[in-house]
Design a protein that fits this description.
The chain has 480 residues and is an alpha/beta fold. It has 3 domains: 92 residues, Udp-n-acetylmuramoylalanyl-d-glutamate--2,6- Diaminopimelate Ligase, Chain: A, domain 1 (3-Layer(aba) Sandwich), CATH 3.40.1390.10; 207 residues, 3-Layer(aba) Sandwich (UDP-N-acetylmuramoyl-L-alanine:D-glutamate ligase); 133 residues, Alpha-Beta Complex (Protein-Tyrosine Phosphatase, Chain A), CATH 3.90.190.20. The N and C termini lie far apart (52 Å). The relative contact order is 0.08.
């Protein structure tokens, strides 16, 4: 009897890709990993070559950890065959050998998705808020339909196709985030997932340094609709600068979401760091994520869910049970209260984070730690200056600026005559020392930067006594 937890057979993968197979054709797996540190029992390990490391160097590690299917480049495999073939034979594993492992992963992911034609496919994209919106929507949908979604932010040309192997026959709805950072990526994502419903949270400035302009970002995001048929549904934010562009010439239906456009939204009361009190079609509930940006994400999810058949009670229960993800509007309470919002940052989200902290009734001081915003391209210095001027106008009692690319924040705040404590740190040890000087018990501290700055490292310094966060957020970051 086949173990349905391991439904992917090596022979199926080889046949789907038209590729040769080495080892045991009956080897099975149930998930897909591209990082050997996550490989283990029941996994397909995909060996990808990156800028700094080559996944083919970690195939043996993955096999020893329990991977029983390997997807690898033919040439790279041949170079290591004398070691790798015996490793396969020792445990009954198999390798499928292809010219391009990434292209093969995307083709295999699309083929696996195609095995479930009755699955309702929903995509979420946008410059910011897409992970929170996806989590909110999945939480609602799972109240009344068997729902699967990609974990964390596995939303890229690598993460999305790898997530396809989470699909099972029992699933009725899939909610998958679709993120891009370079031209042409959305085309690949749409080919893999082929969503029938897509929500676009907003068109902002994330990755503008690579994509070139907000217009180019909008053009790329719009390609999420490229696989629509007549029954396609595009959901677009009512106040987006590019709403008319996004809505034009889309197959199927275009609808808008937001406080004015979403008929089910009866209003909301802000509860500061405790989130919101929301009413949807007469049903009241508390939504625990603070800030107007998170309220908008909740409304987007509620609008999409209602159009997918959710009742008001489903929406209320789903949104009330949402928990903040690492680095996204996390509230950490210790001797100080810390808003950990450092999974990503761009000028729009940085200003919104400061506005949220400004709006909170707080007896103590406010300390804003602002790190570098990455991938802003030629406009980086000016974008950082704009954040610096906004910080100078804020209610902050102290501003700490971190990272050489963020120096214009410091310069602009000083130029604007900021009257509180203002410090710049290029290295983390300098920032740590500045934080010890500037923070006091009872402060409200904002941590806002791009993921690469790893600002969560500051939490134990400014909020001793807060819950341990060991092991959080160690992925995909450069640590200055």
């Amino acid at each position: 009897m086949i173990d349905e937890s391991l439904p992917v057979e090596a022979s199926w993968l080889a046949a789907t890709l038209g590729a040769p197979l080495s080892g045991d054709a009956t080897a099975r797996a149930g998930r897909c990993e591209t990082d050997s540190r996550n490989a283990g029992a029941g996994s397909v390990f995909v060996a990808l070559r990156g800028e700094r490391v080559d996944g083919h160097d970690f195939i043996e590690t993955a096999i020893k950890a329990g991977s029983r299917i390997v997807l690898a480049g033919e040439t790279s495999w041949r170079e290591r065959a004398s070691r790798l073939n015996p490793a396969l034979a020792a445990v009954g594993a198999a390798a499928v050998l292809v010219p391009d492992p990434l292209a093969a992963l995307q083709k295999a992911g699309a083929a696996w998705r195609g095995r479930f034609p009755g699955l309702e496919r929903v995509g979420v994209t946008g410059s910011s808020g897409k992970t929170t919106t996806k989590e909110c929507l999945a939480s609602i949908m799972s109240r009344f339909r068997r729902t699967v979604w990609n974990p964390g932010n596995l939303n890229s040309e690598i993460g999305l196709p790898a997530s396809m192997f989470l699909l099972r026959e029992s699933h009725e709805v899939g909610v998958f985030e679709m993120g891009i950072n370079h031209p042409g990526e959305m085309e690949a994502l749409a080919a893999v997932w082929a969503p029938r419903v897509v929500a676009v949270t907003n068109i902002g400035t994330a990755h503008i340094g690579i994509l070139g302009s907000r217009q180019r970002i909008a053009e790329e995001k719009k390609r999420a609709f490229s696989k629509f048929g007549a029954d396609g549904l595009a959901l677009v934010w009512e106040d987006d600068d590019f709403r008319d562009f996004l809505a034009k010439d889309v197959p199927g239906t275009v609808a808008f979401f937001g406080p004015r456009s979403s008929a089910g939204f009866d209003g909301a009361t802000e509860l500061g760091l405790e989130g919101w009190r929301i009413s949807w079609r007469g049903v009241g509930f508390r939504f625990p994520l603070p800030g107007r940006h998170n309220l908008l994400d909740a409304v987007a999810a509620a609008e999409a869910a209602e159009r997918l058949g959710a009742a008001p009670a489903d929406i209320a229960e789903g949104l009330a049970s949402v928990k903040p993800l690492f680095g996204r509007s996390e509230i950490v309470r210790g001797t100080s209260t810390v808003l950990v919002d450092c999974y990503n940052s761009n000028p729009d989200s940085a200003v919104k984070a400061m506005e949220l902290c400004d709006g909170v009734e707080w007896k103590g001081r406010r300390v804003y730690v602002l790190g570098a915003m990455l991938e802003l391209g030629e406009g980086s210095a000016e974008a950082h200056r704009a954040v610096g001027f906004a910080a100078a106008r804020s209610k902050a009692d102290a501003i700490l600026v971190f990272g050489e690319e963020a120096r214009p924040i410091y310069d602009a705040a000083r130029e604007a005559g900021f009257g509180g404590a203002l410090e710049f740190a290029e290295r983390f040890d300098e920032l740590e020392a500045a934080a010890r000087r500037s923070s006091r018990e009872g402060d409200l501290v904002l941590l806002k930067a791009s993921r690469g700055m790893a600002l969560e490292r500051l939490v134990p310094v400014i909020a001793p006594g807060s819950p341990s966060r060991a092991g959080h957020g160690q992925e995909d970051r450069h640590v200055p």
